[in-house]
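ok here's Polyhydroxyalkanoate depolymerase:
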Amino acid sequence: MAIGEFASATRLPRQGDVGLSTPLYWMYEMGYAALNPSRAMADASRLFLKNPINPVSHTTIGKSMAAACELFERTTRRYGKPDWGITHTSAAGQTVPVHVNTVWERPFCRLLHFERAFEYPPRRPQPRLLIVAPVSGHHATLLRGTVEAMLPTHDVYVTDWIDAKLVPMSEGRFSLSDYVDYLISIFHRMGGNCHVMAVCQPAVPVMMAIARMEAEEDPFVPKSMVLMGGPIDTREAPTAVNTLAQDRGIEWFRRNVITTVPWPHPGALREVYPGFLQLNGFMSMNLDRHLQAHWDLFRHLVQGDGDSAEKHRDFYDEYLAVMDLTADFYLETVENVFITHALPKGEIMHHAQVVKPDLIRRVALMTVEGEKDDISGIGQTKAAHKLCPLIPEDMRAHWEQPGVGHYGVFNGSRFRSEIAPRISDFILSQEFRKDGRARPMPDRPAPEAAGEEEPDVFALNKNVTALYPRIAPT
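and the structure:
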């Protein structure tokens, strides 16, 4: 799950010409609105042609026409954010209801708690696990399988990022440093009693947030961080995405993929990297496979294979639901992560402060990579260990999963059977010793000393260093 696909973005006719992406969103909206009547007619025709009292619905030509209408409607519609659809889990030998609650909220993010209503409290420890979803085009629901795999053994929280086009301009900007602010605020909200799992892109801001907290001896640092398929150092085994970013440079992206949100969206006039442009890139990476999948859907509808058709709908309802990214966050991430490699070089900035990963010492570290990952190459995530030399050996681990690509690192059968159990064991090893006693964390205050109140980042000055008065902003 990279920060979007670059190759299919709008191109300049000649070097130095005015970018074509500025009015692109507005033209997209006009095209979508123009298709509304045709889309409504196609949907009505589908219902008419599938009605069992209509004799045509039992003929091959009727089924073919109904299938064609459904394909037209599905390929021209706008897909909304999918539901989590997680209502129960199996834990401690019992089926447990799950309630999804919002426990923390800011303009660009909500923190969701997947609260399990146990009838009998489990005897096995249930560590608190914060899963940080990527801000990379798809909604956090793409991690549904990840959440389902961790729920039986953990008290799970997930960052649910808000589509940038839905956030009014009055709420301010959202940059890479603001992302780090959000994470620090969430760690404060959880009082340090948690473990954090970063899936792909958030590996960088999670390490930044923890490094900043360590530099300030903040008592609310999490107990461990698990970085999965993250671009910590993209100089290691660079992929096609990494090479393309290097070749084109940040100004190309600024001119060609950034546009403004049109009316009537709440975030009108906000500069974004739009979701529909990202989706164009996602689809073009494997266009033949997507075309074949839709042809297969047509055949399944004509043949009456409802199960196969429903599987297609479920997958593409999720895959085609995309969100806009703020221009500030997108451009800063591309530049710092893929072009200048600022984090491994020790040059990345959080507001006015240099981020120093080599100061991390109280937070255990586990990295996970996929053997066939073509987004974050082998070694890019493992590089985090080199950046954190102060972490003791018994507080670090690395796992390379054979036979999986980028998606398989955090989802699928091998994740459930081979990766998730290793993560759970690592988390428990940082909670308890082999003799069952709690592991003492270096310099971690007692719970009563830590306090329960979260410092409100957003009641302070924009520069988050106001949280840390010992270091004056520069």
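+1. Residues 413-431 form the longest helix (19 residues).
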